[in-house]
Amino acid sequence: MANVSVYNMEGNEVGTLELNDAVFGVEVNEHLVHMAVVAQLANKRQGTQKAKTRSEVSGGGKKPWRQKGTGHARQGSTRAPQWTGGGVVFAPTPRDYTIRLNKKEKRAALKSALTSRVNENKFIVVDELAFDEIKTKKFQTVMNNLKVQKALVVLGENSENVVLSARNIPTVKTAAVNTINVYDILKYNTVVATKAAVASIEEVYA
């Protein structure tokens, strides 16, 4: 089992924590991780784009000039794509971009992403994150103490003050255990988790 250091909010090491290999020590499956990221980004797309083809724009019913003898190229409609006001060639239409992964694939991808962060020493455990007040400056000080800039901060329950303190920092995202995902784990350089959050992750995914 992997051992990681546990830090306090001042950035001092206060102990170690043994991570469960069933979650943080699996074989990294890069293909599944890639599939999970592609699926998440695809599922965010609305798919509501639309443009009209030549059959949908108004007008153009009459042939603009006779077929032969004018010196012009032959034309059958003023709503063909080459005309101003004409339809769009192969116009985009509304579609569903959804990509579905089954539960086992999602879990395996998440475990792989977490394991990769542990292997790269980019998984930091904090004994607790608790603020008496909502203070962005205080949260930034904690990040500086941990020597972290771009981070996904995974929190346990009752962390409203921490969430509100962090929301104005563009390089930090907070997440509850049940909302973490592969894309965020990979997007942010470091994962910072409280001991309570690590226990919850192991309970849910082990």
Q: Can you list the strand order of the major beta sheet?
A: 2-1-3-6-4-5
General shape: elongated
First-to-last CA distance: 13 Å
Low-confidence stretches: none
CATH architecture annotation of the largest domain: 3-Layer(aba) Sandwich
Structural class: alpha/beta
Give me the count of strands.
6
CATH class designation of the largest domain: Alpha Beta
Short characterization:
By secondary structure, the chain is an alpha/beta fold. It has helices spanning 21-24, 30-43, 103-119, 136-145, 160-166, 182-187, 195-205; strands at residues 3-7, 13-18, 123-126, 151-155, 172-176, 190-194. α2 (30-43) crosses α3 and α4 packs across α5.
Q: Which features would summarize this protein structure in a list?
A:
alpha/beta, 206 residues, 7 helices, 2 domains, Ribosomal Protein L4, Chain: A
Topology at a glance:
Blueprint: E1 3-7, E2 13-18, H1 21-24, H2 30-43, H3 103-119, E3 123-126, H4 136-145, E4 151-155, H5 160-166, E5 172-176, H6 182-187, E6 190-194, H7 195-205
Structural summary, described in words:
The chain folds into 2 domains: about 5-30 and about 100-205, Ribosomal protein L4/L1 (Ribosomal Protein L4, Chain: A), CATH 3.40.1370; about 45-95, no CATH class. The protein has helices spanning about 20-25, 30-45, 105-120, 135-145, 160-165, 180-185, 195-205, and strands at about 5, 15-20, 125, 150-155, 170-175, 190-195. Strand 4 (about 150-155), helix 5 and strand 5 (about 170-175) form a beta-alpha-beta unit. It is α/β, with parallel strands linked by helices. The model has no long low-confidence stretch (mean pLDDT about 90). Helix 4 (about 135-145) packs across helix 5 (about 160-165). It contains 7 helices and 6 strands; from the N terminus they run E-E-H-H-H-E-H-E-H-E-H-E-H. Strands 2-1-3-6-4-5 form a 6-stranded mixed beta sheet.
